[in-house]
Amino acid sequence: MSHTVITTTTTTTRTSGDSVLNMGYTRTIPGMLKMGQMVALLVAFLCVHCARGWPSWAAFQYFEVVVLWFLIALTIFFLMHLFRLQGKMPCINWPLTEFFHYSVGTVLIFIASIVAAAKTAGVSALVAGSVFGFIATFLMAVSLWTSYSVTCGSHQTGG
Q1: SS (H, E, C) 2-71
Q2: CA torsion, ordered 124, 130, 136, 137, to nearest 10 deg
Q3: Taking the domains of the chain in order of start, what are their residue ranges?
Q4: What is the pLDDT of residue 154?
Q5: How many other CB atoms sit within 10 Å of the CB of residue 100?
Q6: What is the pLDDT, as a whole number, of residue 86?
Q7: Closest alpha carbon to 73 in 55, 54, 97
Q8: Which of 15, 23, 95, 151 is most buried, most CB within 10 Å of its CB?
Q9: Does residue 66 contact residue 108 with C-beta atoms inside 8 Å?
Q10: What is the Cα Rg of the chain in Å?
């Protein structure tokens, strides 16, 4: 009598695309730009917040509010990409939402940085805060440009 034995081996492997955390995003240009913006905005906020003797209370309060608001919004966008949450909310046009965020953020942070630079009165922490505000403005303008090319890039027409 002969017996036939069949063994089945099942292996499961997870590719990097299946994981919950998308660490590859941190190595992309948009991911690095977002991290740079978050660092610049955080440093700008901390410089102004920890400074003693604001020469213009209203100007630096405006600077703090604008910088903190866009830091929070940017952190949310970064976490959305990091945890791949855009796919779970398909009703929102994410490239257009980020384009709008960068458009408004670039303008408002630029205005806040100009106002802060004009009102520093030589306080070094306030000067540093406004400089980091300008750095964040530049990084947001670069992100605006790259998100524009994704959102509104050239479309080929048949001909």
Answers
A1: CCCCCCCCCCCCCCCCCCCCCHHHHHCHHHHHHHHHHHHHHHHHHHHHHCCCCCCHHHHHHHHHHHHHHH
A2: -150
A3: 37-150
A4: 56
A5: 14
A6: 86
A7: 97
A8: 151
A9: yes
A10: 23
**CB-based contacts of 83-88 (< 8 A; 24+ apart in sequence):** 83/20, 83/21, 83/22, 84/20, 84/22
Neighbour-count burial for 118-155, b at 16+ CB within 10 Å, e otherwise = ebbeebebbbbbbbbbbbbbbbbbbbbebbeeebeeee
Within 8 A by CB and 6+ apart from 41, the residues are 67, 70, 71, 74, 109, 132, 133, 136
pLDDT in tens, the chain (159 residues): 677 767 666 554 445 556 788 899 999 999 999 999 999 999 999 999 999 888 889 999 999 999 999 999 999 999 999 999 988 888 988 888 999 999 999 999 999 999 999 999 989 999 999 999 999 999 999 999 988 776 665 555 545
CA of 53: how far to CAs of 89, 127, 145, 146, 152, in Å? Answer: 45, 13, 37, 39, 45
Residue given tokens 């492997």 in the structure block = 13
